[in-house]
Amino acid sequence: MTSPRKDWNVLSHGSAILPSHGREHNLSLVLQTLSDQGALSRADLARATGLTRVTVSELVAELINRSHVIETGQQEGKRPGKPPTLVDLNRPGLRIIGVDLSGIVPFRAAIMDLDGAILQSFSSPKRGATREAAVAQLLELIDTALGQCDAPVLGIGIGSPGVVADRGIVVVAEKFDWRGFDLGAAVEQATGINTHILNDADCAILSEHTFGQGSDHMVLLRLGRGVGCGVITHNTLVRGTDFAAGELGHVRQRAEDTALCSCGEIGCLEAYASIPAIWKSLAEGEEKGQLNQRVAAYLAGAVAPLLSILDIRNVIFTGTPDVVDQHLAQALREALALRSRTARADDFSLSLSEDPEHLVLRGCAVNVRFHELGIA
To answer: Residue 181 contacts by C-beta under 8 Å, 6 or more apart in sequence?
Structure first.
């Protein structure tokens, strides 16, 4: 493992901001308003939040002291008197490190700003590591990103395959042979930076919801090494009783399916509709159009009940672009319509993600913003 470094630009700040925390909730409200509306005067902030001007002034002073907010100059206008000073999130002065562990390619990391824009990206030259070797590879990549970062780091976000519980514990990730592994603690011990970890599909749907084709009720279906699914209902990410919501890859639809899955069982959806499985079928000579129909039928069999049960009409489909294209999307749309009345509704939509390459990384930024700033 990489030893802790003392010279990184790291901010000192509190834990997650929760509505029940009173003052912390008001601080979060100010940050959320600035995130949504951009730079505002203190008077405008008071009007937008419903808080008094005195309260807003005190909150802004504390947020400036935390380096979460900065003054950006005077407001332009023709009102008499001294123009008010604008405040905004510290967009130029804070960075987020995101890491995507889910891809077919080796680990990927990025330095991002508070709006999730990719400023610089990195990838590990290695692949296939498991257990302690995978952790060492991850820490080496994070060390590289931190070494190139030119501003204080608000937090580290990681999108991992498998089931990820609260506080960064990976319940199970077959890809790395991690079981009950406290990945968050391992990264924080090595870096000294608050680290927040989510399942990769959950990161992807947070990215779409925040920066892309989001809605209050939506499903994101993601093909990678496995088959992942993120679900948002009533503007809330669904994680499940044991944080395993959306694990479609290990659903077995047909008793006659016997392909071996990476989890050790047979007949799982992942064995037929993941990117490696699709590449294997193409390499064996299966015609692309026929393959699209078969894969779409498998995916629709798993997703259609979910759409009907939850009455969700916005589906985002994403994955490796050379496989997850308009042809496969159209086949999936037709397969869903055969299986679900919801998918035949006039307002039903199935769209390809506009930024599949960076979805997980940008979702990591959303997760860090939520836990460190209380910005939803």
So the answer is: 169, 170, 173
